[in-house]
């Protein structure tokens, strides 16, 4: 698990990016939707944009470059140009701290989404 | 309607085909494309693909899901004529496609540098162009880019990354001044020199010289610049010549359409880089040679063709982005020369900022460098300029 920080570090309607290296090979974005935390891979599956920079609306984040929307719960894109889902990760709050349990592989992520 | 022909197999074409199906059209959809391959994405051609960081597969615009659209692809064949009243399309081979509706999506082609063709001289529009250019860049040497617009600047930036010596020549005193205004154009222009690219402005190229292969570029005033390869990034020409005699209104600026993609001929609509369309946001007709327009305009055109209303509640502002020298540039809205410019976030020196353009106090356009998140915030505050008729002056 990687440590993200304290819950109050992630304000309502905002996202924080955890850079690659802290227990994850790729950067991860953690979003606060009405007090509910969601973690996904930060890099858009279309090209090179950070989803933590995207526009949050409900449970969906709009990529800041070409506006594909990703569902934070499933990682699924709503439509082009993105074609593949982003990986979703489990968020764990323990002892007043926020952690992300990084989903190991893309396969694992899609099994989770299908379930 | 039983058959709809989509002419042009790129971003606007595939987007139109998808939109027809989304609107419930279950007849035959024939997509005619002059290129011998399925739709692919062009923006990476001057960026990741030219740099060797993305391959051909990464460019694909179609997905497995598109197989479910049940499209009839006719690839490697250009449309050569549209019969009056638009019911039939004749291909270069002589084959005829009879259709009840036609979507024009033939895009644009790069404007070639005038004169005889010599080797080592490139334009960049297609995948083949990018492959040929990359080969020349990998051979090393000196590249001269003619035109410091977005494509020219991106090619210069990528070539520099590949270790090529680059000179950019621009006839305007200030590149991008017409798009961004002098203050912000100057900030973008500075990126060239900061990255070791020589920029010569206010000077026109008069000719290219070399026996068999380009050797030098001649400038007005008699100067010459040595070159092993040349890229002309001097604009694009809409592919509309094939519409001569069709009765569809068009000129050198493109196919004329209204906001919904309708042309003057019923059952013929148009979208993407081949159009010169009324833009409800800007309040004028214009050709938007940008990716997002080619993605979105086809949805309106498809709705028009099928007789559905597609007028959005709020007009969306034109948008484009560019990546140069590691900087991400984003612009949305419509700028006029007399708009006021103000830095609303960050600072010019840090190269991380958002600038707003105001007209009569209203925010009509935004431009950002390396600030995608704040750009998104400001973009949502854009106000469509008041229609010209309501203006006092
Ligand atoms: C190198 C490059 C970089 C770019 N970068 C950016 C960027 O960073 N940001 C941005 O916003 N935009 C960018 N663009 C612009 C963007 O790619 C275009 O706006 C978009 O491709 C337009 O799509 P389209 O389908 O309308 O036209 P096109 O992509 O031009 O496609 C038209 C298709 O129709 C075919 N065709 C032509 N004539 C006929 C005929 N008679 N019959 C059948 N088929 C025909 C052509 O072969 C072509 O495949 C870039 C463009 C290029 C070339
Ligand atoms: S990079 Fe996210 S949609 Fe293109």
- Silhouette of chain B: globular
User: What's the CATH class label of chain A?
Assistant: Mainly Beta
Full CATH superfamily name of chain A: Rieske [2Fe-2S] iron-sulphur domain
Low-confidence stretches of chain B: 389-393
Q: Name the assembly state.
A: heterodimer
User: Would you tell me the structural class of the helices and strands of chain A?
Assistant: mainly beta
Question: So, CATH architecture of the largest domain in chain B?
Answer: 3-Layer(bba) Sandwich
Order of strands, main sheet of chain A, comes to: 1-9-8-4-3-2
- CATH T-level fold name of the largest domain in chain B: FAD/NAD(P)-binding domain
What's the structural domain tally of chain A? 1
Q: Helical stretch count of chain A? A: 1
Strand line-up across the major sheet of chain B? 3-2-1-7-20
Per the CATH scheme, the topology name of chain A is Rieske Iron-sulfur Protein
Poorly predicted runs of 5 or more residues of chain A: 107-115
Keywords (chain B): FAD, Flavoprotein, Oxidoreductase
InterPro entries (chain B): FAD-oxidoreductase/Apoptosis, FAD/NAD-bd_sf, FAD/NAD-binding_dom, FAD/NAD-linked_Rdtase_dimer_sf, Reductase_C
GO molecular function (chain B): oxidoreductase activity, acting on NAD(P)H
Pfam family, one (chain B): Reductase_C
Write the layout of secondary structure elements.
The complex is a heterodimer of chains A (115) and B (393).
Chain A (H helix, E strand, L loop, with lengths): L1 E4 L9 E4 L9 E6 L2 E6 L13 E3 L2 E3 L6 E3 L16 E7 L2 E5 L4 H9 L1
Antiparallel strand pairs in A: 1-9, 2-3, 3-4, 4-8, 5-6, 6-7, 8-9
Chain B lengths: L2 E5 L3 H12 L5 E6 L14 H4 L19 E5 L3 E4 L5 E4 L4 E3 L2 E4 L3 E3 L10 E2 L4 H12 L3 E5 L3 H12 L3 E6 L6 H4 L1 H13 L3 E4 L3 E5 L6 E4 L4 E3 L2 E4 L3 E3 L11 E2 L2 E4 L10 E3 L4 E5 L4 E3 L4 H15 L13 E6 L2 E7 L6 E8 L4 E8 L2 E8 L2 H8 L14
Parallel strand pairs in B: 1-2, 1-7, 2-3, 7-20, 9-16, 10-11, 10-16, 11-12, 19-21
Antiparallel strand pairs in B: 4-5, 5-6, 8-17, 13-14, 14-15, 18-19, 21-22, 23-24, 24-27, 25-26, 26-27
Helix pairs in contact in B: 1-7
FE2/S2 (inorganic) cluster binds next to loops of chain A.
């Amino acid at each position: 698990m990687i440590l993200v920080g304290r819950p109050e570090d992630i304000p309502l309607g905002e996202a924080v990016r955890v850079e690659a290296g802290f227990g994850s090979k790729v950067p991860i974005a953690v979003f606060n939707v009405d007090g509910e935390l969601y973690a996904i891979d930060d890099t858009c599956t279309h090209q090179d944009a950070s989803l933590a920079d995207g526009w949050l609306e409900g449970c969906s984040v709009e990529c800041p470059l070409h506006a594909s929307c990703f569902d934070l719960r499933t990682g699924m894109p709503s439509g082009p140009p993105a074609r593949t889902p982003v990986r979703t990760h489990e968020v764990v709050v323990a002892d007043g701290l926020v952690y992300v349990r990084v989903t190991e592989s893309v396969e694992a992520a899609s099994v989770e989404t299908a379930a | 309607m039983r058959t709809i022909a989509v002419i042009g197999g790129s971003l606007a074409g595939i987007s139109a085909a998808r939109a027809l199906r989304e609107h419930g059209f279950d007849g035959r959809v024939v997509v005619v494309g002059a290129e011998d391959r399925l739709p692919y994405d062009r923006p990476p051609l001057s960026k990741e693909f030219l740099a060797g960081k993305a391959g051909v597969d990464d460019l694909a615009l179609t997905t497995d899901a598109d197989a479910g659209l049940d499209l009839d692809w006719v690839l490697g064949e250009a449309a050569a004529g549209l019969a009056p009243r638009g019911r039939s399309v004749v291909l270069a081979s002589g084959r005829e496609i009879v259709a009840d509706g036609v979507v024009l999506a033939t895009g644009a082609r790069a404007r070639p540098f005038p004169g005889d063709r010599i080797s080592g001289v490139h334009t960049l529009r297609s995948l083949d162009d990018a492959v040929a250019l990359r080969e020349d860049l990998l051979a090393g040497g000196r590249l001269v880019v003619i035109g410091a617009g977005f494509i020219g600047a991106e090619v210069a930036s990528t070539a520099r990354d590949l270790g090529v010596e680059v000179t950019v020549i621009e006839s305007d005193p200030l590149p991008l001044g017409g798009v961004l205004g002098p203050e912000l154009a100057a900030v973008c222009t500075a990126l060239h020199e900061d990255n070791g690219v020589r920029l010569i402005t206010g000077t026109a190229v008069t000719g290219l010289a070399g026996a068999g292969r380009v050797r030098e570029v001649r400038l007005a005033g008699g100067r010459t610049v040595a070159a092993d390869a040349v890229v002309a990034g001097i604009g694009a020409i809409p592919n509309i010549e094939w519409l001569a005699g069709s009765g569809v209104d068009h000129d050198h600026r493109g196919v004329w359409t209204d906001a919904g993609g309708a042309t003057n001929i019923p059952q013929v609509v148009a979208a993407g880089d081949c159009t010169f369309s009324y833009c409800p946001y800007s309040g004028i007709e214009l050709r938007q040679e940008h990716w997002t327009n080619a993605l979105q305009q086809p949805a309106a055109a498809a709705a028009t063709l099928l007789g559905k209303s597609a007028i959005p509640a709020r007009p969306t502002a034109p948008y484009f982005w560019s990546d140069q020298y590691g900087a991400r540039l984003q612009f949305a809205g419509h700028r006029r020369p007399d708009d006021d410019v103000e830095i609303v976030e960050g600072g010019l020196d840090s190269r991380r900022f958002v600038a707003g353009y105001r007209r009569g106090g209203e925010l009509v356009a935004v431009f950002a460098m390396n600030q995608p998140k704040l750009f998104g915030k400001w973009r949502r505050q854009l106000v469509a300029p008041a229609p010209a008729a309501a203006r006092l002056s």
